[in-house]
Amino acid sequence: MANLQKECCLIRSDTVLSHNFARALLTAERVLNETDYVKLRRQRYTSFDSGKGADFEKGKLKLEDLHDFAAKNGEPKKTSGKQALFESFINQVL
Fold first, then answer.
1. How far apart are CA 23 and CA 17, in angstroms?
2. Using CA atoms, how far apart are residues 25 and 28, in angstroms rounded to an integer?
3. Can you tell me the distance from the alpha carbon of 86 to that of 31, in angstroms, rounded to the nearest whole number?
4. Rounded (10°) CA dihedral 55, 58, 62, 63
5. What is the DSSP string of 21-89?
6. CA atoms of 6 and 72, how far apart (whole Å)
7. Cβ distance 27 to 93 under 8 Å?
8. CA 33, CA 68: separation in Å to the nearest integer?
9. Burial of 93 (0-12, 13-18, 19+ CB in 10 A)
């Protein structure tokens, strides 16, 4: 009897997990298709599209190379990561 109850709970647990995973996938799809997430993410990482950022992304530079570049050129301009805005995209589609 105990084994039957344990299996029953596992089946329910799997169903709940499957439902939550499916809901998360649907939410992610809506975030990508119905918000400015993709555009803002592209803007946020434009430094990886050219120059040293692109070279680093392609594996042509090591962290030490970027350290030397930063030491020579100073700190980059600080900009907001807009974390709250990115989080709000999820709330918009829920």
1. 10
2. 5
3. 9
4. 80
5. HHHHHHHHHHHHHHSSHHHHHHHHTGGGSSHHHHHHHTTSS-HHHHHHHHHHH-PPPP----HHHHHHH
6. 63
7. yes
8. 39
9. middle
User: Which token pair is 23?
Assistant: 């809901």
Pair of tokens at residue 19 = 């439902």
The residue type of 70 is A
| Per-position b or e across 42-62, b if 16+ CB within 10 A of its CB | eeeeeeeeeebeeebeeeebe
The conformation of residue 1, written as its DSSP 8-state character, comes to: -
Q: What is the pLDDT of residue 14?
A: 76
Q: Cα(10)–Cα(2) distance, rounded to whole angstroms? A: 13
Two tokens, residue 28:
């992610």
pLDDT along the chain (94 residues), means of 10: 57 79 94 94 89 92 91 86 89 88
Q: How far apart, in whole angstroms, are the C-alpha atoms of residue 52 and residue 67?
A: 11
